[in-house]
Amino acid sequence: MNTFGRLFRVTTFGESHGPAVGAVIDGCPPGIPLEAEDVARELRRRRPGQSALVTPRDEADEPQILSGVFEGATTGTPIAVVVWNREQRPQDYEALKDVYRPGHADYTYERKYGVRDWRGSGRASGRETLGRVAGGAVAKKVLAAFGMRIEAATVQVGEVAAREWNAGEIEKNPVRSADPAAAAAMAAAIERARAEKDSLGGIVEVRIIGAPAGLGDPVFDKLGARLGAALLSIGAVKGVEIGKGFALACMRGSESNDPLGPEGFTRNFAGGVLGGISTGCPITARIAVKPASSIGTPQRTVDRGGAPREISIGGRHDPCICPRIVPVAEAMAALVMVDAVLGQRALRPETIPPLG
Amino acid sequence: MNTFGRLFRVTTFGESHGPAVGAVIDGCPPGIPLEAEDVARELRRRRPGQSALVTPRDEADEPQILSGVFEGATTGTPIAVVVWNREQRPQDYEALKDVYRPGHADYTYERKYGVRDWRGSGRASGRETLGRVAGGAVAKKVLAAFGMRIEAATVQVGEVAAREWNAGEIEKNPVRSADPAAAAAMAAAIERARAEKDSLGGIVEVRIIGAPAGLGDPVFDKLGARLGAALLSIGAVKGVEIGKGFALACMRGSESNDPLGPEGFTRNFAGGVLGGISTGCPITARIAVKPASSIGTPQRTVDRGGAPREISIGGRHDPCICPRIVPVAEAMAALVMVDAVLGQRALRPETIPPLG
Amino acid sequence: MNTFGRLFRVTTFGESHGPAVGAVIDGCPPGIPLEAEDVARELRRRRPGQSALVTPRDEADEPQILSGVFEGATTGTPIAVVVWNREQRPQDYEALKDVYRPGHADYTYERKYGVRDWRGSGRASGRETLGRVAGGAVAKKVLAAFGMRIEAATVQVGEVAAREWNAGEIEKNPVRSADPAAAAAMAAAIERARAEKDSLGGIVEVRIIGAPAGLGDPVFDKLGARLGAALLSIGAVKGVEIGKGFALACMRGSESNDPLGPEGFTRNFAGGVLGGISTGCPITARIAVKPASSIGTPQRTVDRGGAPREISIGGRHDPCICPRIVPVAEAMAALVMVDAVLGQRALRPETIPPLG
Amino acid sequence: MNTFGRLFRVTTFGESHGPAVGAVIDGCPPGIPLEAEDVARELRRRRPGQSALVTPRDEADEPQILSGVFEGATTGTPIAVVVWNREQRPQDYEALKDVYRPGHADYTYERKYGVRDWRGSGRASGRETLGRVAGGAVAKKVLAAFGMRIEAATVQVGEVAAREWNAGEIEKNPVRSADPAAAAAMAAAIERARAEKDSLGGIVEVRIIGAPAGLGDPVFDKLGARLGAALLSIGAVKGVEIGKGFALACMRGSESNDPLGPEGFTRNFAGGVLGGISTGCPITARIAVKPASSIGTPQRTVDRGGAPREISIGGRHDPCICPRIVPVAEAMAALVMVDAVLGQRALRPETIPPLG
Q: How far is residue A41 from each of residues A44, A50, A189, A227, C68, measured CA to CA in Å?
């Protein structure tokens, strides 16, 4: 399914080397100020070629809003956004059309569909995330109107981990780290991997600030479950944790339970979610990002006939995906939060601040 | 939303101290052999009082099938299962009705709904999982007919980690470990925590065996995202990873990409999922389980009026939830897999083995 | 799918001669006063044996609420309602198990599922509507809190049509006509059909009073489309019209367009819906109800082997279903309206009156 | 919600005087031959200016496929279709921006959303149906691969009713009647209404040929209910009936029950649906189409401030919408049928013919 959300729904489309990618955003409340630049700004953040650490491909990625906006604001009707694929060079991929790249979705797409659009990974390309980011750009405008915002940063690259969270630093360094000192070490590690025709994994953290208590559903749609689904749906993400996450496995209840004081919770190991519902504290999630699959190092694989092959993937590829996943993770978190806030408005509007 | 799934849907209901809990399973193919004992067997596995390590409450939990089964097999109509709550002792909870227990959903339910059924955590009780396990029991019968099965085990309790996976051992020890040596150490650690009026977290691993390649959807409903949502929707689960998960953050692409040989993948760091679609390898997921919230150790909190309180939670509670989460995790994984297999049957029935 | 609704969802289950039928109502706002008698009252209205005109079977149909209600009001968690089938006499149907009754779903269920629960039509029995009426009973309580109510009546039986709408009369006559004079003629027509071992069709009208303008969605979920789906999902309903409906085919635009004056619409040929959205006028729909399929008159059919058979269906059956469809139609309309009002609350809460 | 369908989903977007309208079609099986001309052919059928009977506006309406098709066939990924709005003349509507046109959605949109895109009815324009027809064009290709097809025709205009169904005639006359004699009388009636600055209603019939028995769901998603929702979601449609529909109100069971013979049903008053499931006979539905709302005759209304106004709507408008609703009704029926056939494939693939 290429649609995400219940009340605020985003449907994405597009292959990397087809004519265009895009999204239709449905269920957006009317009266939210929106212009193409709001979307363009977010798209630029996920764009390749922003620094030496990411792929130097030149993608202008100018979004065009086709519907749902009138006189500078949303109308309540679906907002279609389209981004044209300027670079359509399928011939670059001719050599790979009969071979399954390790770590990629080539093999599984073919098993699922019987056919595969082999031009630049087709729908499995990172360009698929443009539609998510477009949807997230609209979602962020809605969240802002409710007094909420989202921050995300790379908190680990290979063995290098950040030690502080200084949100103002994130956009100032190419790895999108909130810790300037760690940022330099991360960049060096990525450069090293690139020089060795290899790639590196990492961890990205997402923080949702300003969410009132009471968002999320108690059983199957726990806020953590919805966030988990949203974040695990991003290509290359293989793990997610809410609050202290896997570290809780080694804790005792007397350590992990967050105490409550007259002013609310006095600690936030729960990551802002208890019983699937927001506590009013910042909501925090971390995602495990696997090393980029496209590497120049030779790898063993097979072709469509099952014959062994060795391949080295040349061309322009990110050695570490974390910096570009940051805006995608923000977008997915934003979609979840808008859905949750609208759902709670349906249930008990008096618990949600008026749209500002 | 108390419904999970698209084509195979489970709707659960019930509070811990109301008359009953249960589930309605909709979208089950006709002709699957099913009797109450199939459900009862699974429910017994999540039942309290199975060993000294879990709460000694006596819950018979005999399921009654109210519909959807005729002459020993499913008919295609909804299967309602109800389990009566034999023990309704709300008075046990009178003392807690005005205070927010740390780590519990008391505070967030009240913020969300304005009211709260304080009798034994109400809907936020672990008894809510009975409906999941009932649905999972039906799902497992469907999976079996397609040649698939699910295994789950406790792989870590506090600092004690399992080192092997011997599926035949799991039901032989009270912690449900697949490693008999680790099982003894895990049990000792749990006993120690209990003696100290405290609790312990841990990790549970789920393995899906026999899934054909091609299951799952490529974008928002990646198989890992669906499994993640399913598992993170279980109370106390605060993290999930697919395959190598968070360990991938420290790897390089040349290490993490699974090579392909003529017989298929020669390694399975991806956990059986690439691009959101099953590869044909076992599908593996691990979940972080937080320490049980109910502990005898005194904790700081507030009452409904905001006044500080100290509480110690007495009574019968599991010091480590992992052993009882094992069957719940299996159930949730089973729901995801039946949905995926039916979805792929709609798309390309020729890729799915006939119901056996 | 046995679930209806988006935000306010009802999932029903149960076969006529299995242990029970029932419903799970999910998404109900908290704080709505509700007790079993609210559901029982509505169930009695659809019960057989209320008059000489309907089947004399004795079904007590006492509903039991299993969850979701605490201290006399809804809590926001799912409300499960179960009604036990007191009369399970499958032997009555032994003779029919290998033959397809004309006008019934015997043939189509078998083609769809490969199997069929032949005991009293199984899931295709009119008893399936108990779950709908239970859900509708809860929905009506929610609507009442928003200042809305629903009226329905039989407006035609065979050739006899009602000429007035006096809502106070509906429950005073066995056909549930709002026109006392027509009621007598309708009753006579039904008696005649019964005496001749035959059955009669008719028309039921539903009116929704008090709905604010702005409910419904403009494209696929037009309010008329949602009402149409809800009403056409009732067994035996083969047509639906909103406002003037089919009569509009013979009108001109200058006749059919409702004029607007300073106080709002000065006529309501549109049936309270324009562009899929409520106008603030009463919302009106009429449904075509086919003659009851079970008749004593001999009919030609075939058995499961394809051999010709003649059957006369004996036993206790309604010669005209309209009187008993009235509460079912109300229930379905109520489900649609609660969903619409909650949806609009999510979008623009300021347009919906506070829950009273 | 601007998405229709469960397994085969169409999401539409676009206002009449914005940059473009379009659709995203998701869930289409891979391997279905598809090119832009397949969509263009259907779009031409709903285009204005095809005859003297419909509005002479010139809309080229050339669709562009942005994704989901590779080497002439669907790939299983979402198919985005966009149609640019060549004529954007909002100034034509300046005069109407502060007045509510009777029979239009002006008033209700404003009540719902608080704002309204007044340029040519915005989202409530008939151009919204372009997305439906694009989706239907893809659906028809899928149906064809399953051996099914859809026919629709105008069967009544004002008082003029067709008497025969000769499918080969439909595209030969401007009213799209299957009865050439009636077609001439219908055309004359429409011309008369136009000359009198008025409009006419009518009835359109849809027939689905080749559907196997067993499609549809027995309770809330009865095939008739799904078709009803689909057809009632088309602007100007105010009624729907399946098979004999409202005529059943005046029948007796001995007349209305379709007998079964060794070769199947020997009559089809049920319109191919029993108990919500297809019987294997042609599935037939008829829809009531209201007279076009835009008429030159002066009408009483109010402006946004509530002051009385008289308006005459000039410009290019269809005096009878039936001819152009024909392809839209076919499209909606096609969407329902593809969804039903895929749903049944998930449940019991052996009952569905292989994709041809």
A: 5, 13, 28, 23, 46
